[in-house]
Amino acid sequence: MGISSNALDGCTGLTSMSIDMKYWYDRAIPAGLLKDCTSLKEINITNSDYYRSPIGSVAILKGYKDKADYNNLVTGCKNTVIPNSVTMISSGAFAGCKGLSEITIPSSVTWIGEEAFRDCNDLKTVTVCGNDSEGIYIENGAFAGCSGLTAIYVYATEPAKLSTARTGGSSVFEGVDKENCVLYVPKGSVEKYRAAEGWGVFSHIVEMEGNTSIGGLSPDGETFVTEGGVLYQILSDNTASLYSAQSVEVGSYTIPSIVFDNGKEYTVTEIAAEAFKDNVGITEVTIPEMVTSIGSGAFAGCSGLTAIYVYATEPANLSTAASRTRAGGSLVFEGVNMESCVLYVPKGCVEKYRAAEGWGEFTHIVEMDEGTCISGLITDGEAFDVYDMSGRKVRTATSSLDGLPKGIYVVNGKKVMK
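^ thats the sequence. predicted structure below, dont judge the formating
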């Protein structure tokens, strides 16, 4: 007799299992058999020429006894560690697997089957060790429906080929939040992945530092979070840097004063080099008061920019050598039409910005009217709600901003500065 792929559904308390294949007449063990076995730690298979479970793997492999190459992973669970001998992950092997939060696919794997990890909703991190010499092929729907994915680490410098057989476009990552899931790739490989079919759909493709050996290649302990599809890097001093906003499609974008990681607040103080580079769709950007550093090329190629609102009373320094063009102008805004794009600055700060290197290149530097400053906030004596730039309500039915930290807030749909 055989066994159904649903035979162990709901067996979350199962810690060990033994399978004597003489009672199954060596019929197939189905993919997805172990998907609900969140407590499983040990599998023992006897009397089979085709199946085995290596010690510590908590997975079932298929192969041929006479060749000793049990290299096809048929089914796994939350506690599976994929052995280095595995070259194939069967279609549906982990589909719907409960509790699986991370998985490392060793460099020995050259093929990942259709829907292998489909609907693994708890999956947060995938590491694909990769193999540049043999490559890896990933079938349609392999990670489809993995809506919780936040990071994919790929160690191959050459992008894996993704199947496009069904729809003419890859469905490997269908249902993955590609605006907020960060794809990490080896140093020098970002452009390759941006251009590769199926991989280029990720908004944030980040270059990892270090060498190309597994374990040596990493983001060096860096932490990234996403807010509205924009990638922020968490720094070591309770601050954050806007790392990448090239995918922002809205015409107007306001950089939040703070971002959150695991409930902790980080003040946004930097805009990284090339953060908005070549984003021709953005027309207005608002930069909060605490931003003191803007990297080279941060807004380069943003030819659609018509307005920049800056709330810092002291201009951020754009005069470093790295941020200069050959002609002596600022690389930060290279490609922005400095004659038509209007720079709005706080009341009383126009001359400071005119004199500041880089900022003074804007033809039109305009003092923001009183309505943009807390001193000119007019509410006709009525109570109002206050929101921060992340959209979080920080005051309800109040009459003032007293007690709130300095920054930009939204009152009655209008930005105000305290």
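The mean pLDDT is 80.
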